């Protein structure tokens, strides 16, 4: 369930994750304490924005919502693109929606857009120039997997296959509606159909998984920092994981691999 940094740069693969929060300072304090991230100013297209670094390498982005924008706080998964404008047209032609862009990043590191699939799950597309995406992955404190949580895989997997060239195959978990998305034979993301278990307040959404050295200890740390444990630590075929929310309610999964 880990995608290497080089794999993340393949067109179609999840390559970056970004969070829009109400308070930059509180959010940086939370993730700095949880993952050991350090922050540096980034492009200011939509307001204050910073890039998170671990061991001197970029791992994620954090932005601040305008005070008058009462939007849910959530992590956004970005999928790599060789041409953001072409990808945006493909999204529209396959039943998706492009809500923002494509537009150039303020510091000319790339070109991006924000879109949603036919079931409403929001994601970004990123055409990297000098910033290709997450430079550090596979270690504690880094994003290691992205998974689409939706009502059923059959209604949405053709969209991602046609737009991004994914090869979808059953994940091999008996009794579960679960697909693995592959590019050139490499697993890059998952799709999990949860039926009526889809959260009403969130709908279809992309989930980011962050590696931690010890899931139970990290879950306790989340609560100490003002967050919540939404689904308690449990064992899976890929490692011990827990679903949590940060101090502003942004949901993500922590996983202890191996």
UniProtKB/TrEMBL annotation:
Domain VOC, chain residue ranges per copy: 13-128
Q: Which Pfam families match?
A: Glyoxalase_6
InterPro entries of this UniProt entry?
Anthracycline_SecMetBiosynth, Glyas_Bleomycin-R_OHBP_Dase, Glyoxalase_6, VOC_core
- This protein is called VOC domain-containing protein
Q: Specify the species.
A: Streptomyces kronopolitis
């Amino acid at each position: 369930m880990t995608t290497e940094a080089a794999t993340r740069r393949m067109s179609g693969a999840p390559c970056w994750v970004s969070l829009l929060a109400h308070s930059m300072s509180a959010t940086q304090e939370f993730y700095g304490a949880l993952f050991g991230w350090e922050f540096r100013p980034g492009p200011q297209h939509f307001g204050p924005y910073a890039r998170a670094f671990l061991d001197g390498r970029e791992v994620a982005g954090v932005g601040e919502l305008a005070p008058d924008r009462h939007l849910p706080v959530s992590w956004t998964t970005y999928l790599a693109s060789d041409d953001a404008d072409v990808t945006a047209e493909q999204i529209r032609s396959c039943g998706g929606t492009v809500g923002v862009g494509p537009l150039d990043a303020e510091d000319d590191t790339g070109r991006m857009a924000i879109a949603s699939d036919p079931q409403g799950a929001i994601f970004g597309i990123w055409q990297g120039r000098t910033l290709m995406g997450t430079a550090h992955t596979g270690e504690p404190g880094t994003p290691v997997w992205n998974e689409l949580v939706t009502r059923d895989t059959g209604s949405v997997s053709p969209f991602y296959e046609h737009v991004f060239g994914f090869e979808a195959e059953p994940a091999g978990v008996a009794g579960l509606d679960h697909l693995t998305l592959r590019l050139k034979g490499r697993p890059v993301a998952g799709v999990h159909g949860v039926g009526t278990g889809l959260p009403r307040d969130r709908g279809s959404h992309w989930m980011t998984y962050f590696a931690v050295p010890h899931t139970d200890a990290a879950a306790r740390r989340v609560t100490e920092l003002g967050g919540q444990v939404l689904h308690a630590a449990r064992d899976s075929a890929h490692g011990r994981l827990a679903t949590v929310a940060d101090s502003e309610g942004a949901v993500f999964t922590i996983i202890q691999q191996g």
